[in-house]
Amino acid sequence: MIETKGYAVHEPGSDFSEFNFERRDVGPNDILIDILYAGICHSDIHQAKDEWHDSMPTTYPLVPGHEIVGRVVRVGDDVTKFAVGDLAGIGCFVDSCRECVNCKQGLQQFCFQRAVFTYNGVERDGVTRTYGGYSNNYVIDENYALKVRPADDLRGVAPLLCAGITTYSPLKRFGAGPGKKVGVVGLGGLGHMGVKIAKAMGAEVTIFSTSEGKAADAKALGADHFVVTKDPANLEPLAGTFNIILDTVSADHDINPYLGLLGVGGSMVVVGVPEKPNTVHSLSLIFGNKTLAGSLIGGIPETQEMLDFCADHNITADVEMIDPSRLPEAYDRTVKADVRYRFVIDMQNA
Ligand code: NAP
Ligand code: ZN
User: Fold this and answer.
1) Ligand nearest 331 Cα, by number?
2) What is the pLDDT of residues 23-34, one digit of tens each?
3) Which of 250, 302, 318 to mutate to test the pocket of ligand 1 (most atoms within 8 A of CB)?
4) For residue 134, with 0-12 CB atoms within 10 Å meaning exposed, 13-18 middle and 19 or more buried, which class applies?
5) pTM value > 0.90
6) Sign of the dihedral through C-alpha 192, 194, 200, 203
7) Are residues 10 and 30 in the same domain?
8) CA-nearest residue, atom 13 of ligand 1
9) Are 330 and 281 in a shared domain?
10) Which residue range is the domain that position 276 belongs to?
11) Same domain assignment for residues 99 and 58
């Protein structure tokens, strides 16, 4: 077994403390990754606090982290995709059945037997709990690890493994590109990646934000327009004008005003996961042939495609680096929408 040092919460809302555990030995198809950087996704916070108790209850101790970049330090005998010294990434899941219709299509996140999530999951042996990237290493089957090209800013690559793919996948599916108007609701970790990726795809991008103070950042990120949503009057002139609206908001809010901004045939894609359900009147969708959709991360092939797209377009996340002792501060500031725009933990000396 491989000794691992991680950082865990032991009950909802508790602080992080050092937590030592073991990962499996490196099997024939496995690689061992020394973790360099781990991003902090709002899903980590939801689960650390057990806010998704009814659908995805948290089992403690919880070591979060599913935006992982590291270096391969050991490979199993049958590994072909990675060599010792390569960079590798790990996203939100680390295994799946490989045989169901969804796995066969490369949509492993929708595995009929449920994908093995990177943390707060159970391995396919049915007993071994998974612990995430707030730790110094990970053992993963090579087929579920991603190739990462050497980049100047690997710290900004880590968040692509969740925030990047979660925004890339629906933007591509709903046709973001030249001549298309894309709205991004919420300028946080996902939102800022959505802006960068939609711009790189060629779309005209508007940010909808509750935070007036992010206007200058929005421009620097490449957004064409910035709309403060606290005053509903700001939305009125935009009614019926958007092709795609991507809602990344983590907290309870009304999505109906945004449906009104879609043009005929427009699509609103929800990726944020607030605690409470939303209510939508059928007529809000019927008038204008509108689509209300959801999107969950992406499968392995599309995640690799996204990493390559971002490398080709020089896209990385804007990050604030912390060491594990600052996890409580990072969680508090993220909940207050005060992250610019992803906290990333430096795991090298942790
Ligand atoms: P984040 O960095 O905290 O960003 C969320 C943003 O939402 C904030 O920066 C803020 O932007 C806005 N916001 C916060 N509170 C709000 C409120 N009360 N009303 C309106 N807007 C508010 O979070 P994240 O890491 O980007 O994650 C966003 C959500 O996506 C989370 O719920 C997460 O669990 C979920 N998620 C889903 C997937 C998926 O596959 N579908 C993957 C990853 C994460 P402004 O300051 O601009 O208003
Ligand atoms: Zn995430």
Assistant:
1) 1
2) 999 999 999 999
3) 250
4) buried
5) yes
6) negative
7) yes
8) 249
9) no
10) 166-294
11) yes
